[in-house]
Amino acid sequence: MKRKTSESRLATPYAIWSVLFIVIPLILIVFFSFTTQVDGRYVFTTANFEKFFNPMYFKVIRRSLVLAFISTVLCLIVGYPTAYIISKAKPSRRGTLLLLCILPMWMNFLLRTYAWSAILGRNGFINTLLRFVGLGPVNILYTDTAVLLGMVYNFLPFMILPIHTVLSKMDHDLINAARDLGANSFQVFTKVIFPLSLPGVVSGITMVFMPAVSTFVISKLLGGGQFYLIGNLIEQQFMSVGDWHFGSAISIFMMIIILISMAIMNKYSSGNDKEGGGLLL
After folding, report:
1. What would the DSSP string read from start to end of 31-69?
2. For 252-269, what is each residue's pLDDT tens digit?
3. E-assigned strands of the chain?
């Protein structure tokens, strides 16, 4: 009994924190999304959600989902080999390699994105190098390419770390057994290593897609405000337009998108909650 009492006391600060900064804000967002102000009073309405189904906003949704999907795929293509190389490195070097991957995250997110503005600018490092070799300047900044580069750079560690965790805990006896049975390197990877690492892949995809689909800083700085993503639209409603009701409705819609994507990812990772997934026979 005393143990339960002490545990509940230890959990009290976390419960207060969750109520103040998670539960109450969510309640406010739901409240504003289903209400509007008429003569100083809040009136229930679904007009905020109906407004969001304007074809103009569908373009914003499509662009947000497409860029988030492409950035997630690029992070997987770059992140999986990186995580595999780190997991195969000597234990004495593995910590250093992981440190190099997460070192940029020690810097402020805004400063990291601003740095890419200087790199991709017309007088930036890349265009200076291209001029030096005689290829001339290339317009990269304020394009979809710049936004994708910013997303991949900022969210790549979220793909590397979970995949590396799964690969480093993998039972190497299964790999050795596959080789003893005559499997070549490609077969070992496709039939053993990759299936066993799927939980890490699914976690990485979830951790990259969620912030990518909701970001507004990267698209604002590297996109130059020339196009909107869902995050930019929400920021505009709260900070510029002052329409908290419509902004809350968009936030609810974005939460639904994220929850659906998480449900899909959990469906593929169900039953693989230990060291790895299942072998592909």
Report:
1. HHHTEEEETTEEEE-SHHHHHHTSHHHHHHHHHHHHHHH
2. 988 888 888 888 877 766
3. 35-38, 41-44
